[in-house]
Amino acid sequence: MALLDELRNASDAKFKEMLDQFVTNLIPEIKDSAGKGYSGYQIKLNVPNDSRSILFNNPNFLSELQKDERLEGLKISIDKKVVKSILGTSWTERYLHINWTNK
Questions:
Q1: What is the pLDDT of residue 101?
Q2: Distance CA 93, CA 46 (A)
Q3: pTM
């Protein structure tokens, strides 16, 4: 059981590290967006070969992001959109939405 605990602890620590770095980099982007007059910010989560996919696919990603004190007061959600091609195939895209208005 010791190995299992060690692996889980290492995974949890890396998740927390990646989340902290993500939020640190996100804050200037949100401020820039607000400075341009926008009331929200959107990030596509399922981008092929994105190194952050490990973070985005973690089942705790949204809840931990919502708990982060640096993002207090912001409405944070993940939305899914089904996209259909002209050939009839379809796929689901996931987006992280961050909103700072009460409308």
A1: 84
A2: 6
A3: 0.86
